[in-house]
Amino acid sequence: MSPRPRTVSDIDILTATHQVISRVGPARFTLADVAKECSLSPATLVQRFGSKRGLLLALAELGKDSVGACFDAARSANRSPLDALMTAATEMTRHMKSPEELANGLAFLQIDLSDADFHALALENSRRIEAGYRDLLNDAVKAGELRPCDTRHLARTVGAVSGGSLIAWAIHREGTAEAWVRADLNTLLAPYRTARRAPRTAARRPSRVARRSKS
Predict the structure, then answer these.
(1) Is 50 helix (H, G, I), strand (E, B) or coil?
(2) Is 147 helix (H, G, I), strand (E, B) or coil?
(3) Cα–Cα distance, 111 to 91 (Å, whole number)
(4) 25-52: per-residue pLDDT in tens?
């Protein structure tokens, strides 16, 4: 007798897991929460992933493996390497509905930093993202959008700025996360841009004083 076909794929389960974690965080969610989200039984999740830890590890593995697809999509959507870089560097902001969701994501980072298995996946994820940024920066230099520069260190800084800027947005809560992060990335890249490529948006947000003076 052939096994019964799976009505819910592992990808669907991991997507549901991400949604649940976004709402309640990695510490508070249960297998029952995820099972309810994707209309399965907790026993089915145990059968497929072994435990809550196994489910979280599978989610982390999926995140690592999806980096290449993210950069491929950014390239496909933008003819300009620099525009593709902006798209890739702000990918997370387009899925961030609230500062509370970011807080729950940062709680996952605590696991990445304290558990060796999770850290290995997080490190590989980070390396792949940095390599993706570096490739786009190299292409931007070749296309004449950026001046020749140390793209390895600039790629690392792009990653640091995009992540730190997202946290700053969650604190200030002004405008959208994407606009906030793009403004900071424009400031970072401004000294490297050639006359051919001026930023599409202002390099910095107006200060609070400036906004009040206009009102």
Answers:
(1) coil
(2) coil
(3) 22
(4) 999 999 999 999 999 999 999 999 999 9
Instruction: Read off the tokens for 109.
Output: 């980072």
Place of tokens 């140390």: 150
Question: What one-character DSSP code corresponds to residue 27?
Answer: T
Own/partner pairs, 36-43, CB within 8 angstroms, 24+ separation: 38/8, 38/12, 38/13, 39/8, 40/8, 40/13
| CB-based burial label for 13 (10 Å; 0-12, 13-18, 19+) | buried
Residue 168 CB coordination number (10 Å): 16
For residue 55, the tally of other CB atoms under 10 A from its CB is 21
> Model-level pTM?
0.85
d(CA 24, CA 184): 29
Answer for the pair 87, 78: CB distance below 8 angstroms, yes or no. Answer: yes
Contact assessment for residue 112 and residue 60, using Cβ atoms and an 8 Å cutoff = yes
Tokens of 88: 């890739």
Per-residue pLDDT tens over the stretch 137-178:
999 999 999 999 999 999 999 999 999 999 999 999 999 999
Name every residue whose Cβ is closer than 8 Å to that of residue 67 and which is 6 or more positions away in sequence.
125, 128, 129, 132
Residues 6+ apart with CB under 8 A from 178: 90, 93, 94
Record the tokens describing residue 152, joined without a space: 């390895």
